[in-house]
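Pasting as-is:
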Amino acid sequence: MPVVRSSDAVVHEMHGARFVSYASSASGSAELCAWRGEIPAGTKAPAHTVSKEEIFHLLTGSLLITLDGHTESLTAGDTAIVPPGATLTVENPTPEPATTWVTTSHGLTARLAGGTVISPPWAR
């Protein structure tokens, strides 16, 4: 049974946020990826269109999640389900950091507004 200790999690940084990867193909997961997202106060990620479903569970803080132009405010304990093909923006407009737990399938990609495709290493 693969076990990933917190000290073994792999940290990535992008667009001002940290992605702490626990489950991926590199850590022994056959189908799913899961990571903790750390979103500092005042951070707004660029809009991006995801190729696979993502489940965002907010552990701490508050976030604004915009899906295809519709914005929802999330507080700790809330979960957002992002369907494949949706355009997503995550923003922390508060003075406090926010922490998420995110799960998706292996191979998720994200297309930025300018057409650049990102294949995040924490989602492989």
